[in-house]
Amino acid sequence: MTKRLNEKVMVITGAAQGIGRGCAQMAAREGAYVVIADIQKEAGEATAAAIRAAGGQAVFQATNVVNETECAALMQAASETYGRIDVLVNNVGWFPRATLEETTTELWEQVLQINLRSAFYCCKYAIPAMRASGGGSIINIGSLNGIQGLPNLLAYSVAKGGLLSLTRTLAGAHAADNIRVNYLIPGWVLSEGELALQHSRGVSDADLQRAGQSLRLGRHQTPEDVAYAVVYLASDESAQVTGTILNIDAGATTLPISPGTLYVG
User: Fold this and answer.
1) In whole angstroms, what is the distance from residue 186 CA to residue 35 CA?
2) Whether 122 and 149 share a structural domain
3) Candidate list 156, 183, 228, 232, residue with the active-site label
4) Is 208 in the same domain as 96?
């Protein structure tokens, strides 16, 4: 049986853990050749090894995506290893909490580098490879904050808003190249990183469970929930989808907050 991503070459940034790892694992199960890019070498190698052990195809490329030279090297390595690039998932993200008054110039620059500049660099060097092979799909992992914004996530909200603008600009600029560019909004995903963050703030598993049960669809999301959407946007099933926002957020973007919803932040 032909798999949905049969032999598509897929570069995923921030894929050593969390949403990125979930996307890499599911993409490999659907037949993709996955290039895992991350600054965390040990975790990245482990993710690639786990995919190969399960019968999939994956390699790891140590990459600091705020470095233009390393992003160029990432795309070159993917092209040399598998012959082309079909899909790019810009997944790297960092969201330190800070209001306008609390945001230093250094923090502002770091947040924009990680959440926006990294995607610019990766697109800049992936698009020529995609054009050469007849097209491709770029999936930018966005945020509800990129549309609505939160005062205590100032820099992150601005960066994700910029990522949405980058998405739509590139979608229009490269439609003639058969390169699709879309913006995916996850909801509250309880990855291992998010769990560790909440635990460090003294939030218990019972608190998180109650918060999840109070959400519209009754639970927190998992990396796999996001990965299903990534597979769709990477596949030929979405051949006519570009420049759009796909919400995988349990209605958080479009529905008012449900009465009694707990927020653990």
Assistant:
1) 22
2) yes
3) 156
4) no
- Beta strand extents in the chain (DSSP E only): 9-13, 33-38, 57-62, 87-90, 136-141, 179-186, 245-248
| 124 within some domain | yes
Mean pLDDT, residues 182-188: 91
254's tokens: 């479009």
pLDDT digits over 210-238, tens only?
877 777 787 788 899 999 999 999 999 99
- 38 neighbors 62 (Cβ within 8 angstroms): yes
Residue 71 · residue 118 · CB < 8 Å: yes
Catalytic (active site) residue 156: yes
Res. 253: pLDDT tops 90: no
Say yes or no: 83 and 172 in one domain: yes
Give dist(CA 124, CA 126) in Å, integer.
Answer: 6
Q: Which of 91, 97, 223, 226 is nearest to 156 (CA)?
A: 97
Domain extent for 234: 9-186+222-247
- Judge if 207 and 113 occupy the same domain: no
Task: Looking at the structure, tell me whether residues 198 and 130 fall in a common domain.
Answer: no
Q: Which of 10-14, 128-132, 201-205, 227-231 has the lowest mean pLDDT?
A: 201-205
Number of domains in the chain: 2
Look up residue 10 and give its amino acid.
M
